[in-house]
Amino acid sequence: MWCFLNGEWMDMADAKLAINDLGIQRGYGVFDFFRVMNNAPLFIDDHLVRLQRSASVMHLQHGYSSEEFKTIVNELIHKNQMPSSGIRITITGGYTTDSYSISQPNIIITQTPVVMQDDFSQNKAFRLITHNYVRDLPSVKSINYMMGVWLQPVVKAAGADDVLYVKNNFISELPRSNIFIITKQGMLITPNEQVLKGVTRKNILQAASSIMQVKERAVSLEELHDAEEVFISATTKRVIPVVEVDGKMTGDGKPGKRTAAIFELLLQKEKQSTGCE
Amino acid sequence: MWCFLNGEWMDMADAKLAINDLGIQRGYGVFDFFRVMNNAPLFIDDHLVRLQRSASVMHLQHGYSSEEFKTIVNELIHKNQMPSSGIRITITGGYTTDSYSISQPNIIITQTPVVMQDDFSQNKAFRLITHNYVRDLPSVKSINYMMGVWLQPVVKAAGADDVLYVKNNFISELPRSNIFIITKQGMLITPNEQVLKGVTRKNILQAASSIMQVKERAVSLEELHDAEEVFISATTKRVIPVVEVDGKMTGDGKPGKRTAAIFELLLQKEKQSTGCE
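^ inputs. structure came back:
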């Protein structure tokens, strides 16, 4: 599989960074990830806006414009011919001379296969546990997933599928997903603070507004437990129903009808955006 | 310069990790760093105990015993002949297949020159700013220094030398140093919670107990500002006086006499430990 590393094309197996990269030394870098559907990148403009913002907040002056990234991405898609896949653009802190300071960033662009399930009823419903945590600089998609990776054995031991971060009784996000509740009154609500603003989250808010009231605001743990339906969203997950949080059934413990409707709206939006409808 | 990477000896310039390393992908790994003085490793047992503990807490099953690490370190010192230096052992989450799960860790052992100043009066006194933060898993020496690296321009803009983390009005540590206060009553106090337990910190507490009362307990920001003397400690810094915090002079704004005495005790302890006295 072809990949792009600092201006050069190479096989992914040959793509390496020297050990003084600030990612390896201090876990410092940002990235973004978007899907490729029928050889077209999905919602790439939104992802590039977020990537450029992440890099800027993190003082990573990489010198690539979004147009340049798009040209590289298109060439990557052309070279690899992997119709259903994901592309990750990573920008690390670069080769540091003092093991602490940011340098000229390293740019890595890779493509990997992604298998999507278009039939909502076939997607596994998730059980979540909660953990008291807020990510550092949550609006930035940094490479710092230390807490999420570290919690994996805890999630597994609890027989759960993922972990929801909670602070002062308010929910925020999962390590790699946003969360939504649908109230008994039929309103769609998602936290708006201490979260990474997902592109799928944005598309859901837009699409769902045609069938229900939507709101971005703080959501307490109690509201989550009281909700009629709960689901999470992510680029590779689209919409996944949540049927249990901390061992307590959410809603009636089954994937919800409104969640299914939102899944279908999202699917439609994906198809529209790539001109496949 | 020789280094050790996953069982092989190579020049540091040739030491590289494939881009699917979990350090690069998710900032996941641990390390430790100790000095070499007259070609002897300094307090290596303490550092290896901490490294093994960090790896264990972070689920990094690397398979190297402390004795094996010591053998490699001794060979590295022998190969490089760099009498005054620092050795870093890094253990990353390994080559991940799903970009999120821990795999067989990658082990990197490098040696770099370190110049130490043995004359306390020649060491620059530090000015600090504070930042509202506690590290994730602070007792673990992870590679996650995102906040410290990110704050560097803020530190610089404030004309300061480093940043002190504070939460709920209590001080904890700097990104790479511990902090101590000496009260007007002549007691040495250092925070004992939400900190990485430094080896230099440990040596200072031991050495200073011969000349003053020492205590590990919570320290408020007010106590810091009221202190007679303030200093920080780290492997490459030994003892550095702090003369200003958030623009406010600490003590009389000059390096303190007791701080100087502790520096000398630490120097003595270093010499004793390598049999150079």
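Helices of chain A lie at 22-26, 44-57, 66-80, 146-150, 152-157, 199-208, 221-226, 257-273. The longest helix of chain A spans residues 257-273.
thumbs up if we can close this ticket
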